[in-house]
């Protein structure tokens, strides 16, 4: 193996999913190590091993890479097809990927990722959350319709870094039945049916019961 990819519990760790997808799509030869999350930022084993005290953290062929978007960029250097080929489209894809990295806080705070949670709408949606969902819907729809007709993934017929960055959002849309445009709902179904996403769900289901968080 050429390196190690440090992950948090697959059931909950949205940022781990982003990095893991990019690593798998790029075909990096790494060992995957999963550390159960303890909640409340108290996972000291991760603190001791990761430069930013968080997951994912990738060591590969002499490189140390942390932060999901940085891992995605690193993987795209090895597998350039992880970004659109066209310069202008690539700039668009990079912009919405960075937007996901820094934004959509109300969704992330109110709709925690849990791949084993039974889908059901939230009992109440604040104005702030509704506005964030509307922005998300416009952002994803804009990418999907950029060519004039819906694409399977955000920038064409294959998964890119942008899809990696928004994959946990697809899970949240499904889990909390968020009100997004029908075009976006089709993308969600495509994402959830992707072999890697299905594999992530299966791996999460195989994790020890004692890793489950009470919330």
TrEMBL record:
Entry's transmembrane regions: none
Pfam families, A to Z: GST_C_2, GST_N_2
Domain GST N-terminal: 3-83
InterPro entries in the cross-refs: Glutathione-S-Trfase_C_sf (IPR036282), Glutathione_S-Trfase (IPR040079), Glutathione_S-Trfase_N (IPR004045), Thioredoxin-like_sf (IPR036249)
Name this protein carries in UniProt: Glutathione S-transferase family protein
Lineage: Bacteria, Pseudomonadati, Pseudomonadota, Alphaproteobacteria, Acetobacterales
């Amino acid at each position: 193996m050429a390196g190690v990819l440090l992950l948090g519990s697959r059931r909950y760790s949205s940022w781990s999913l982003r990095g893991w997808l990019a690593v798998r799509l790029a075909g990096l030869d790494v060992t995957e190590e999963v550390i159960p999350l303890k909640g409340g930022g108290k996972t000291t084993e991760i603190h001791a091993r990761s430069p930013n005290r968080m997951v994912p953290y990738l060591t590969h062929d002499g490189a140390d890479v942390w932060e999901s978007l940085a891992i995605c960029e690193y993987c795209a250097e090895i597998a350039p097809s992880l970004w659109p080929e066209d310069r202008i489209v690539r700039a668009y894809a990079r912009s919405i990927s960075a937007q996901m990295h820094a934004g959509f806080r109300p969704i992330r705070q109110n709709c925690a990722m849990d791949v084993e949670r039974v889908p059901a709408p939230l009992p109440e949606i604040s104005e702030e959350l509704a506005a964030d969902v509307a922005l998300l819907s416009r952002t994803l729809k804009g990418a999907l319709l950029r060519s004039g007709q819906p694409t399977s993934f955000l920038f064409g017929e294959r998964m890119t870094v942008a899809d990696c960055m928004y994959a946990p959002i697809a899970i949240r849309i499904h889990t909390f039945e968020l009100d997004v445009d029908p075009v976006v709902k089709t993308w969600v179904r495509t994402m959830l049916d992707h072999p890697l996403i299905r594999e992530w769900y299966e791996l999460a289901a195989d994790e020890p019961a004692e890793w489950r968080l009470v919330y």
